[in-house]
# Entry
Amino acid sequence: MTRSYQEINEKIRKGTAVVMTAEEVSRMAEEMSPREILKRVDVVTTGTFGAMCSSGAFLNFGHPSPSIRMERIELNGVPVSGGLAAVDTYVGATDCNPANPNYGGGHIIEDIVAGKDLVLEAWGKGTDCYPRKHVKTIVNRDTLNEAVLCSPRNAYQNYNVATNTTDRIKYTYMGTLLPHMKNASYSSAGELSPLLNDPECRTIGMGTRIFLGGTQGYVAWNGTQFNTTKPTNEYGIPIGNARTIATIGNLKDMSTEFVRGAAFEKYGTTLYMGVGVPIPLLDEDLAMRVSIRNRQIETNIQDYGNGYTHLGTTNYEALRSGCIELNGKKIRTAPMSSLYKARIIAATLKEWIERGEFTLTEPVRPMPSVSSVSPLKIVEVEE
# Structure
């Protein structure tokens, strides 16, 4: 049995499509085969809400009179890109002012979504066509011409568990890690996570319509560090960091419920983002993929205090229990992402589809079938 995007979308328009969240399908899979699930379900919704440091937004301020070529730009004192002449910028989630490290690009993006005023200050050398050299003013969501979330790497397919074997506290993007493996942190919605429900990205590619920050957005490309070479377990799930997606959407339509700036102690700023992807059940293979359970999703445990040394593996059922065991030692676990929010995202996307407000788009370009990630090669440069 197979079905097409067109058949599913027709059922969505008629209000007859059966939509379930990935968690609901995982429970069904305890008693039903993939073939039976395929007969009963048309679309499966997923969700994740976590820190996505590789996020950002393009902004257009418009020209003052006289006009300026903005070459150095600050928003609320945070330096942002001045290389998009003349009055555009890119705000990265980890942009920050070292003098105020707890407020940065992620907070600016959240403030725009919230409709707050921001102080824009910009400088240029002055040219014949752009004579102004300085401007200082107030901007907000309503005065910006465009505010487009455009993130090069979101929704990691799987991610490492972080712990610390050293005798010193380590402050990382995975949170504060106590000495001697007294805690471990992880960041994934497990069986609800988008790319774990379609591990080979058969239905996820350029043009896929998704839930993004509380509104409809799109997959723009494969995300940076897209890696198909990670080993997989017996269920076809990559173990550790693997595929990612680049995303795009209208920042002005988003909600601060799903777009939140954050700061990690002694690490810096980031952006918590909500992403949800619908998985159409086109065939029995996809029905099997979305039936994955937390106990079947494995990931690596790495020592973030000692060069990311591999220590072992665990699964998300164990992580969710609050304690894992490694070499006879019990380690407390805590999530860096929000399962509560991920469930809201999957449920919201389900409601949109059931109401006929969200139809599925077939990718216009598939994800790469082979892609690897290479480390930066250090080459000695003469001074």
